[in-house]
Amino acid sequence: MTSDLIFDVQNVTLRFGGVISLSDVSLNHKRGEILAVIGPNGAGKTSLFNSLTGVYQPQEGSITFFGRNAKPISIIGKKAHRVSTAGVARTFQASRMFSALTTFENVKIGAESHRGIGVLGAMVKGPATRRGEKMSDARTIELLDFVGLRDKANTISASLSYGDRRRLEIARGLATNPQVLLLDEPAAGTNPAEKIQLTQLIRKVRDEMGVSILLIEHDMKLVMALAERLYVLNFGSVIAEGTPDEIRANAAVVEAYLGSTTSDAEELK
Ligand SMILES: Nc1ncnc2c1ncn2[C@@H]1O[C@H](COP(=O)(O)OP(=O)(O)O)[C@@H](O)[C@H]1O
Ligand SMILES: [Mg+2]
């Protein structure tokens, strides 16, 4: 095992009853890399994210996360909030922020709610919250500034545009000071201009904060522009790995997409 990795996934199999969501998946994520996982619907992408974050517990294989100071941490068997504390942050496919709160409040409580204390615990400031480090107002403003939401700090989150909600999710993820940020379809529901801005923001997170990025994204144009390397999942298995150019030219990948929706196959070109 080498410390130039952030994740090392070996032979992971995840089953739900008779359904195999991940089948003997091996992959690695290099420290500082923008890596993407693509594949048709139902391929196992979200299952992989859930396995990397301690939400799902695969029956077979190993997942090693190289945390702060490249310390190896075995993920399988760890609770999600422990994985988060160790330095793995994520955003969700369906936005999970608290729409009645302001942008500022959402980021400020982000650190606590990501640690598994929950929004209620964070708000009533129970013992669990007091034990945790509370994020300062200054740090919250700094993060809002970084993602471009400082002027919307006092806006109720429900009234933000899709693009701004996605930025807010990223700020909340960064509030935990992660080593790696996992993004599940960060561009879902956004317009073309917002997609370009999100691409720039994600790159800035890596370049300026040194956070490794693992990305699931349906928008082929965005993913090919942003990712330095990709893995392709189909029916729970890795069918290809390579640079954007290698993936575009891979016959098995094109076939997997042709088997799903033609619009996805078109976008691969
Ligand atoms: N909690 C779960 N219980 C049962 N089956 C699940 C669960 N999570 C995922 N699956 C199954 O795993 C397969 C992969 O799903 P998923 O990881 O969501 O795919 P993707 O994100 O690539 O669309 C699907 O067949 C899905 O129904
Ligand atoms: Mg999914």
- Please indicate the count of domains: 2
Helix and strand element order = EEEHEEHEHHHHHHEHEHEEHHH
Determine the number of helices (DSSP H or I, runs of at least 4 residues).
13
CATH class assignment of the largest domain: Alpha Beta
Q: Which secondary-structure class do the elements indicate?
A: alpha/beta
Helix content: 25-40%
Query: What would you give as the CATH superfamily of the largest domain?
Result: P-loop containing nucleotide triphosphate hydrolases
The residue-averaged pLDDT reads 87
State the CATH architecture of the largest domain. 3-Layer(aba) Sandwich
Q: What structural keywords apply?
A:
Rossmann fold; four-stranded antiparallel sheet; 40% helix; binds adenosine-5'-diphosphate; alpha/beta; 2 domains; 269 residues
Characterization of this structure:
With 269 residues, this protein is of the alpha/beta class. The chain has helices at residues 45-52, 80-86, 103-108, 110-114, 118-124, 127-131, 137-147, 162-174, 192-209, 220-226, 244-248, 251-258, 262-268; strands spanning 5-16, 19-30, 34-38, 60-66, 72-74, 88-90, 180-184, 212-216, 229-234, 237-242. The strands form two sheets. Strands 6-7-8-3-9-10 form a six-stranded mixed beta sheet, sandwiched between helices. Helix 8 (162-174) packs parallel to helix 9. Residues 45-46, 93 line the site of magnesium ion.
